Amino acid sequence: MNDAGLKRMDAWAEVGRARQHESSELHVRGQATYTDDIAELAGTLHAALGLSARAHARIKSIDLAQVAASRGVVAVLTARDIPGLNDCGPIVHDDPILADGLVQYVGQPIFIVVADSHDNARRAARLAEVDYDDLPAILTPQAARAAASYVLPPMRLARGDAAQAFARAPHTVKGELHVGGQEQFYLEGQIAYAIPGEDRGMHVYCSTQHPSEMQHVVAHALGLHSHHVTVECRRMGGGFGGKESQSALWAAAAAIAAVRSGRPVKLRADRDDDMLVTGKRHCFHYEYQVGYDDDGRILAAKVDMVTRAGYSADLSGPVATRAVCHFDNAYYLSDVEIRAACGKTNTQSNTAFRGFGGPQGAIAIEYVLDEIARNLQRDALDVRRLNFYGKTERNVTPFGQEIVDNVLPELVAELEADSDYRARRAAVLEYNRASPVLKKGLALTPLKFGIAFNVSHLNQAGALVHVYVDGSVLVNHGGTEMGQGINTKVMQVVAHELGVDLARVRVTATNTSKVANTSATAASTGADLNGKAAQDAARTIRARLADFAAGLHGGQASEVRFAAGTVFVAGMALPFEELVAKAYLARVQLWSDGFYATPGLHWDPKTMTGRPFSYFAYGAAVSEVVVDTLTGEWKLLRVDALYDAGRSLNPAIDIGQVEGAFIQGMGWLTTEELWWNPAGKLMTHAPSTYKIPAVSDCPEDFRVRLFDNANVEDSIHRSKAVGEPPLLLPFSVFFAIRDAISSVGGHRVNPPLNAPATSEEILKAVAFVEAARA
């Protein structure tokens, strides 16, 4: 090959390229197989859950005769029919699969109906006659705090001497804020299909982000070992955290029904049942106090956060921990006291949701800085920038982790210039002076988000890579595909490592019998962990092939190169498949496992200090809105977002993730209101009453770019995670709305705006500002 050809080979790469999603054509054609699309075996039965009608009560009696006699019903199962443990709690074992004598929220499963069709099972489940003895119910986090009702002991993180710092501070701001929860609203609801096998085996197809945890829960529920149970997931129609721990109930119930009937059983939740049964993003109530100087620099901060955890612990502890560790967001806090409590309420057990407490922690400090800026009559961006973490000083978080990769000053400066922030700020002021009803608002907010599970042992992954005799490659890893493109990125990593085109690589379904003891695909670590594990496996195979090629043709193995489907050895260029075929005949092992564990992580939950994150992702967004102050309606006019994805593995997928996270986060903060009636029933349990953003809510002018950066840590190809951090970007929408409301009072009154900023909340805030101005 000539020099020009070698240079082309040197420039060849499969990572860092905008590649389409590996299942995109199947999605468009409607041929992608989800759990409900799997061909049903002969004799398959269908299950439905019978749900509690009370928020908190003892069951005095239950009559299931009409249920059992209903058309098509094969069996009705209660807690006493569970062969093993009646528990699906991921950490604390306080979460029964089926309620046994005590119900703790409206919608809690009490029994399983097994019938010949989905419709028959669901209709029969409504026929139970249950006599309840009602108990007092706690429904809000404020009520939980007042009653000292918690699912876990409260936590506290402190640095410096906040009391002394407050005494020295020239100014203090204090107040309260409430930020609501959010339904995951995945397009594909919860579903599991359990197929009994020989020798007590059980194969469960399940829409889950955590196949290994489903394996453990099913095994425990059936009184079996993990090796009896195989859990498989090819893809999900969305997860967003709602299928991390809470798919366990559905997997366990389907498996219990399959064991008791001896036949395959599918359990598919209808949307209203799904929303009534499953947990959501935790709502947070905050009481805050912050001291600051004449310029707006924070000198002291205290915040007391309480969440609506629901009736059981689920993942509330780690969620609250991440909220505590993200209260600082992008800002150095020298003297700080952060408290968080997980309020026990008689509502659904809240769980993981994209961001996992990080957004709830960070929005509080942004709310405070917005108030400080208004109090000082300064631009909020200037106050935020003044409080940014430094590069070599003021660069240690309240939990003790040094920030070594702070690119926020450069990133925000770039966004400020590209978005014409200053000119648009002046234009908004002019518009509002001339417009008595419609008011515009503009805000720029930054983000800093830690990447890793905040439980160190979860930061591990495994993978298998097979190279077949024809040179094609099959990959299996422990991550799960929920539309975010993890399979595509892992395929690119393996293709790049082996020097083959992406078309040669295929990924199979996540399966607990192939890669064991996997962690959840969560915490934005999916590509980081599984990409590294797959790279490790592929690198092992490449090294074997390099040794073989050098032995066959001469030269050093270290000098053998793989690129563009070609192997370069001793001045020769061999097609990859030709070398593979020869290696097979020479009995060279052409498959390998791979493993990765994130180094350098440690965390002390007692002191709430350590290095819980491998690195930080950064970003910022500018949003411009217009608000109708007579109706509370508003419209997002333009968004400029700049996100730090490091050396992106796939820019097309990453930009799509930023866009999707932005709109999802905007929905959380503006339209997606969860409402329980006084009896504790969730009334927003269907698309008719729960409003996620639609296409018409997206801004016509939506500008998303990736920041030019390389990860300082040795992540997979120096990329950065992109799943959760961008959900903080729409803070800019919330504060742009608050800015528009503030203009009603000439920006001299802080609007008391809670989230979601629905039209009702906006009108309340407008009325407050008008009254204060008068």
Walk me through the structure.
It is a single chain. The protein has 774 residues and is of the alpha+beta class. 30% of the residues lie in helices and 24% in strands. It contains 20 helices and 29 strands. The strands form seven sheets. The chain has an eight-stranded mixed β-sheet, sandwiched between helices. Helix 7 packs across helix 8 (247-261) and helix 10 (316-326) runs parallel beside helix 11. It is globular, with a radius of gyration of 27 Å. The mean pLDDT is 97.
Compile the SSE list and pairings.
Layout (H helix, E strand, L loop, with lengths): L2 H9 L12 H6 L15 E7 L5 E7 L1 H5 L3 E5 L24 E2 L5 E7 L2 H8 L3 E6 L6 H6 L8 E5 L2 H7 L2 E9 L11 E6 L5 E5 L4 H12 L6 E5 L13 H15 L3 E4 L2 H7 L6 E9 L5 E13 L5 H11 L9 E9 L13 H19 L3 H8 L20 H11 L2 H14 L3 E14 L8 E8 L5 E5 L8 H13 L6 E3 L2 E2 L14 H28 L7 E3 L2 E4 L2 E4 H10 L5 E7 L4 E3 L4 E3 L3 E14 L5 E10 L7 H20 L30 E6 L24 H12 L16 H15 L1
Parallel strand pairs: 1-12, 10-11, 14-15, 18-19, 28-29
Antiparallel strand pairs: 1-5, 2-4, 2-6, 3-5, 7-15, 8-13, 9-10, 9-12, 11-20, 13-14, 16-27, 17-18, 17-24, 21-22, 22-23, 25-26, 27-28
Helix pairs in contact: 7-8, 10-11, 11-12, 15-16, 19-20
What is the structure about, briefly put?
Helix content is 30%, strand content 24%.
Q: Regions with pLDDT < 50 over 5+ consecutive residues? A: none
Extended strand count: 29
**How would you write the strand order of the largest sheet?**
3-5-1-12-9-10-11-20
Net shape: globular
What is the terminal separation in angstroms?
82 Å
Q: Main beta sheet, described?
A: 8 strands, mixed
